Known about the structure:
The protein has 185 residues and is mostly helical. The chain has helices at residues 2-16, 24-40, 53-75, 93-138, 146-182.
Amino acid sequence: MELMHSAIRTMVRDNLGKEGAKYFPFVLCLFIFIVLLNVFGLFPYVFTPTVHIIVTFGLSLSILIGVTIIGLFKFRANFMSLFVPGGAPLVLAPFLVLIETISYLSRAISLGVRLAANLSAGHLLFAILSGFTFDMLTNGLALLSVFPMLIMIFITLLEMAVAVIQAYVFCLLTTIYLGDTVALH
């Protein structure tokens, strides 16, 4: 727990500075929540909510809405300056606002899809390999099934690492997005 606490605190401090330290409890809770959901999915017969795109998209959309609301409260109308890059010609402003708005909204999609897709791929690989190993065992090929079993052990270790890494990446991107509420670019 201490290692998680210090890693998340360092991440928040590096990305948000001293003023963004108020977001540390949220990011730490988010990290622990996602790690637990991801790791629980490695146990047999346990439902993994984070492999479903609607769950991860809902979580990421909630974060994006929260960032937008906090930014609007803090910077008022100046928050909309995110949608017009500095130094851009005024003639291109409507086109750039459209592009930047699409880019801003795609944050929620990319944040949610990344988490669900990476976890789904690992679960699918594990399911295919375990089915193959089971078929080998039931067909009397116990000696040959040792190799797939060893691969399954390594994939389980890999899935544990992926569960933590994906939670960290989700929280890292969340802190980067929260950076818009600390200082406008």
